[in-house]
Design goal:
alpha/beta; globular; Aspartate Aminotransferase, domain 2; Aspartate Aminotransferase, domain 1; binds pyridoxal-5'-phosphate; single chain
Length: 440
């Protein structure tokens, strides 16, 4: 598409670097101006196919759906904010009641906040209060957020924790990352050594099970590299939690809200958690975090937990409108995801057969990742290659996001036009082809 970094783009990036604290900005020059349908437009009117959904926030389309915008505008004219944790109002409760219809029986309480990290922070605090136990078990590769409780559970990249410790009482165990098994075993002959490890090491030598409040887990690791564990891993965690009176906390922030083809990603494993957390797509493009607890766990004391913006009237109106859309069109959405997932998996697996640098293709629904390696045999992480593929694809008109050490996320909006999806995959393949030629 002949993308060029013009002066306006250069100026915008220079001003960002001058005035803003550095975050994780990608190293390609995307300066976003608007989004429409399956496309992102930059400030110089360059158009890109979006395979990033702005970090899994627009599961149902860039700039969200017309009905969502209408509900948000209507609420803004009435009242933008209502101090929901102090005064009663109907909108956020309508949303909570509708949300609970998506949960298994027995789930009855909702806490609203503003982000994934806050949703996990609340889950951590609730789990400790409910169980009266201090410790938590989480996983290497996990990303649960960047505030202190959540950051204590995050173990995705050291740069996220560097210089910021000490952290809370969290012990980490290896996640079931079968492509790079930390025990150098093969699934299924491994006999789920990673589940055994939890019993034999952290819970036998470090944190007494009866002092451990919860196991926090992502059903598919997102930031950690789009890692899909075997069913037995999640089943094993449920069993450990049950055997020891711990809670299983399921972080659905990235994998949830239909991304894997089911509302709850954990349902793909036939397991139920005790606490679920959401953010990203659930707010329909506005900031929302949600923590949902099993009714039998009880409630908080008045004043124990609250915030200023949780249950914000405008955000809740948008979230409820989007949830209404999802519930009304569930069958079509589910079958659409299956169809699109097949298209993507087939194309990516063909690429894996064709190119030495595509080491692994994995995913559920439209939460799909490809892992880039130097070569299939050594599996040496293809970090530079991965970065070059993302850059080349961007210059070809496709926005992607990295994950883990050397993976790429393929997370288009769930109802992406199939021709646009194919075109995006063409651009990706062309980028892989070029990088793979240069790396020979
Ligand atoms: C699984 C998961 N949990 C929690 C978070 C933190 O969410 P937020 O950035 O909204 O705080 C993220 C963000 O990427 C995530 O992917």
């Amino acid at each position: 598409m002949g993308f060029k970094v013009d002066n306006r783009i250069k100026r915008a990036i220079a001003r960002d670097r001058k005035f803003m604290i550095t975050t994780t900005k990608e190293d390609f020059p995307l300066v976003v101006q608007k989004a429409e349908g399956d496309y992102i437009y930059d400030i110089s009117s360059n158009r890109f196919i979006d395979f990033s959904t702005f970090i899994s926030v627009y599961n149902f389309g860039d700039n969200s759906r017309a009905e969502v915008r209408k509900a948000i505008k209507k609420q803004m004219d009435l009242l933008m904010h209502s101090a929901f944790t102090d005064y009663y109002s109907e909108g956020p409760v309508n949303f909570a009641e509708n949300l609970l219809k998506m949960f298994p029986k027995g789930f009855g309480r909702v806490f609203l906040s503003n982000s994934g990290t806050e949703a996990n922070e609340a889950a951590l605090k609730f789990a400790r209060i409910f169980t009266k136990r201090p410790y938590v078990l989480a996983f290497y590769g996990a990303f649960h957020g960047r505030t202190y409780g959540s950051l204590s559970m995050t173990a995705s990249k050291t740069v996220q924790r560097e210089g910021a410790g000490p952290f809370g009482p969290v012990v980490h165990a290896p996640y079931a990352y079968c492509y790079r098994c930390p025990f150098k075993l093969e699934y299924p002959s491994c006999g789920m050594a990673c589940v055994d490890y939890i019993k034999k090491y952290p819970l036998a030598k470090e944190i007494p099970p009866k002092e451990t409040a919860a196991i926090f887990v992502e059903p598919v690791q997102g930031e950690g590299g789009y890692v899909v564990p075997p069913k037995e891993f999640i089943e094993g965690l449920r069993e450990i939690a049950d055997d020891n009176g711990m809670l299983l906390v399921d972080d659905e922030v990235q994998a949830g809200y239909m991304r894997t083809g089911k509302f709850l990603a954990l349902d793909n494993f036939g397991v139920k958690a005790d606490i679920y957390t959401f953010a990203k797509s659930i707010g329909a493009g506005l900031p929302m975090g949600v923590t949902v607890t099993r009714s039998a766990l009880g409630d908080m004391k008045q004043g124990a937990h609250a915030n200023t913006f949780g249950g914000n009237a405008t955000v809740a109106a948008g979230a409820d409108a989007l949830l209404g859309y999802v519930r009304k069109n569930m069958d079509r959405i589910e079958s659409g995801i299956k169809e699109r997932s097949k298209i993507v998996m087939k194309r990516l697996n063909d690429m894996k057969d064709r190119y030495e640098i595509v080491g692994d293709v994995r995913g559920i629904g439209l939460m799909i990742g490809i892992e880039i390696v130097k070569d299939k045999k050594s599996k040496t992480p293809g970090i530079e290659e991965r970065n070059r593929i993302i850059k080349e694809a961007f210059e070809g008109g496709l926005v992607l996001l990295p994950a883990g050490e050397c993976s790429i996320r393929i997370i288009p909006q769930l109802e992406i036009d199939k021709k646009v999806l194919e075109r995006g995959l063409d651009i990706l393949e062309e980028a892989i082809r070029r990088v793979s030629l240069n790396s020979q």
